[in-house]
Amino acid sequence: MTHGQFGPHLYFADDPIGDWQEATGLAFGESDGATVERIWSIQPAEREGMLWAGVAPAALFRSSDAGRSWSLVRSLWEEPSRPKWSLGAGGQCLHSIVTWPGDPARLAIGISAAGVWLTDDEGETWRRGVQGLVSRYLPDEARAESYDQCVHNVHRSPTQPETLYLQFHGGVYRSDDAGESWNDIGTDTGLPSDFGFPLVADPNDPDRAFVIPLEGDFDRVTPGGALRVYETSDRGVSWRPLSEGLPQKDAYLTILRQAFAHDGGNPLGLYFGAESGDVFGSADGGASWNVIADHLPPVVSVRVA
Amino acid sequence: MAIVQLRSPLRELAGGSGEVEVDGRTVGEVVRGLAEANPRLRGWVLDESGRLRRHVSLFLNDASTGLDASVSPKDKIFILGAISGGAAETELLVGTRKGLFVLRGARGGPMSEVARKFSGQTCEYAIRDPRSGTYYA
Q: Which of B4, B17, B93, B127 would best serve as a mutation to test chain A binding (most A beta carbons within 10 A)?
């Protein structure tokens, strides 16, 4: 939660309708020279009682007491390359925390704009996983040495953990080797645009993923005034639009990074919200959609409880 | 006595307390004792024939359990409505620029707002940890 004047704070509750308590420790130390500006993601870890949180400026926090208190993961904060990391348009943020089912040591994180980082030792050491990502917004000659990889979203297929899907700042990618390298699945594959933020990987089918493209970097609305979710069921070889029940005329919506979610069911339940305050849902894997709620304030995130 | 943990709407039906101590040697005895002490809860957890309702889950401490499980003093029993993954009712956590909205309704269909928390603040992210049932925002 971020209060306009009093900054970000993290809360927890046993009942979302009841009282929430504030967690402690989600802050930098006095000597770190930084202030937590926004909490981007909270993710249960693969160890009992442990959670991860990603914030802006790009940093990872860990809780070992079910979210009551938090501490900075210093190995990533003090990563030697950090001075070379870039800012995304929304600030430098750690927005994607991708656990490995059953293995608490392995983790992938996505940072805008500093690429994908991988650890095999629960955050003690880190390495980049950016081979194959193309920063088209940089001059050709600057790409090889740059740390400016503007990752927008990363998700893992839990039944085949080596498979990850990634929405880039211009580009959609799939990794077959747990995030070490990436394959372009956004070019000439049926997407109206390979720019966007929302992404879902089907938890029951590693070949299936969903994106909601936006027109482009300088026009962040649904292309052509039509609201369409795109589905691949062949690992990104091809994408097809899903639009039944979604507005197809004069619908210039913006769907933000964390505002697209699934319920894990089979058929998969899918939900997303827009800055317009509309929330849409599907109980049949996206084949048909309903308005779940409307006239809400601009939607920033959607998750199924 | 076992400690029964309740969430909405059961909590309100039990007089607003999220934690109730109830006697019983089994989970079933505790659940029945809970309804006897709080008549408004009758029919909510167990159906007319005394069976656990299909979309209600029981946990004894950290593990899923049934009505026949033995209970020791200070054991914690959680009574939860199944709320995702194909269950009858889905709960959505919708973070907005003006607070967290908790929506409930049929899976994939129109939902009702059951709570708005942190009014006026930006909720960038909200999630429920499926292992513990704890919510974070």
A: B127
Which residues does chain B have within 8 Å of residue A48's beta carbon, measured at their own beta carbons?
A: 131
Fold of B2-81: Ubiquitin-like (UB roll) (3.10.20)
Contact B91, B103 (CB under 8 A): yes
* Interface contact flag, B96 A277, Cβ < 8 Å: yes
Check pLDDT > 60 for residue B84: no
Domain A35-184, classified CATH 2.130.10.10, yes or no: yes
Q: For residue range B23-37, what is the model confidence (pLDDT) as tens digits?
A: 999 999 999 999 999
Positive/negative CA dihedral, A280, A284, A286, A287:
negative
A-contacting residues in B 90-129 (Cβ below 8 Å)? 90-103, 105-111, 113-115, 117-118, 120-129
For residue B14, the model assigns a pLDDT of 85
- The pLDDT score that the predictor gives to residue B82 is 57
- Asked if the model's pLDDT at residue B49 lies above 80, the reply is no
Indicate yes or no: CB of B110 within 8 angstroms of CB of A290.
yes
Q: Do B11 and A20 touch (CB under 8 A)?
A: no
Question: Which residue(s) pair with A13 in the sheet?
Answer: B135
**C-alpha angle B133-B136-B137 in degrees, rounded to nearest 5:** 150
Structure tokens, A150: 């503007």
ipTM: 0.96
Compute the C-alpha angle A112/A229/B86, nearest 5°.
100
DSSP, res B118: S
Mind listing the pLDDT tens digit for each residue in A14-23? 999 999 999 9
Low-confidence ranges of chain A (pLDDT < 50): none
Domain definitions of chain A by residue range:
35-184
Closest residue of B to A16, CA-based? B135
Q: Using CA atoms, how far apart are residues A249 and A189, in angstroms rounded to an integer? A: 24
pTM of the model: 0.82
Tell me if B108 and A42 make a contact (CB, 8 A cut-off). no
* Residue, of B53 and B28, whose pLDDT is higher: B28
